[in-house]
Every structure is written in structure tokens, then in C-alpha cells.
Design brief:
Layout: H1 3-13, E1 17-24, E2 27-33, H2 40-56, E3 65-69, H3 80-85, E4 90-97, E5 101-112, E6 116-120, E7 125-129, E8 133-138
Parallel strand pairs: 2-3
Antiparallel strand pairs: 1-2, 4-5, 4-8, 5-6, 6-7
């Protein structure tokens, strides 16, 4: 049974994009998203619809666990479409290049097409063909810039001491 062919129409009818579906050892994992992010209520509604559809199809011989979620703030990038959608985002990419060996880059995607992605780092721009990329994910930067004149992380105070 083609699990993705069973799951995709239900997910799309919920107005969501199917990112990934896996079924191993009785666990069906479905990862969904939508432009602007997906809310818990949308995931819960779609999970209920998908569960009903799977039950009607007698999926998993009646015994399975359905886990539906969003990709989260730090998303794995797997195919050219993922990179193209994330132009302008900060990413961390690990690659293995024939002439250089292992390579790790953290920077911003400045361009992406069907063949390769271009990442701008502090030093330069680097174009990587997808077959050489071993892993890639977006990088979420927590918090903002420190306020001007505010305490720095390096300042230390001693509790209990008086000056």
C-alpha cells in the first residue's frame, strides 16, 4: 500500500502541505506545513480526518499510531523545492565534496534552483550541488539584539558582597 498516496489527498484537503510521511513499526509519522506556519488546531483537525480515512482503508491491519506535526522552527531541507522556498533564510549545511572532503557552512541562502543552492557566509558565497549535501536545516536565532547601554553577558556580579 502506498502510504503517501493515501495520506496526501487528506492533508491537502485540509489546506496543508505534506512535507514527509513515514511508516515504520506501527508508527505513522506525518509532517505538514503551510505558508505562514501551521497552528495546533489545524494539525488536530487534519489528524482526526486522516485517522478516519485510515480506519476506512483498514490501514496498518487496524493497529498503528498516528503522529502528526509541523517541521518546527529549525526545518530540515531535503530537496530543491525546500531550498527554493527558504531563499533569504539562515541555514547550516554539511556537505561532502570530492575535491575538499567534509564541509560545514552556516550562512544565508541567496539563491537556489533545481541543481544547486548558493549560500552566503561571512567570507564568501558558495554554490553547492544538491547531490553533495549530506544534511541541511534552517537556523532559528533566538532573541533579539541586546539593548544599547544594557548589561553585557560578560559583566559579573557577586551576590552578598557590598562595595
Amino acid at each position: 500500500m502506498d502510504v503517501e498516496a493515501l495520506v496526501r489527498p487528506v492533508v491537502e484537503s485540509c489546506g496543508l502541505e505534506l512535507i514527509e510521511v513515514t511508516f515504520t513499526r506501527g508508527l505513522l509519522r506525518v509532517t505538514v506545513d503551510r505558508d505562514g506556519g501551521v497552528h495546533l488546531d489545524a494539525i488536530a483537525d487534519c489528524s482526526e480526518k486522516l485517522s478516519r480515512r485510515l480506519d476506512l482503508e483498514d490501514f496498518g491491519r487496524g493497529r498503528y499510531t498516528l503522529e502528526m506535526s509541523s517541521p518546527g522552527v529549525e526545518r530540515h531541507l531535503r530537496d530543491p523545492r525546500d531550498f527554493i522556498k527558504r531563499v533569504g533564510d539562515k541555514v547550516k549545511v554539511r556537505a561532502r565534496l570530492p575535491e575538499e572532503g567534509g564541509l560545514s557552512l552556516t550562512g544565508t541562502i541567496v539563491a537556489a534552483d533545481g541543481d544547486a543552492v548558493t549560500i552566503a557566509t561571512e567570507g564568501a558565497e558558495r554554490r553547492l550541488a544538491y547531490p553533495f549535501i549530506r544534511s541541511a536545516r534552517t537556523v532559528f536565532e533566538w532573541g533579539g539584539q541586546p539593548k544599547p547601554g544594557g548589561p553585557s553577558k560578560r559583566s559579573k556580579t557577586r551576590s552578598g558582597s557590598k562595595r
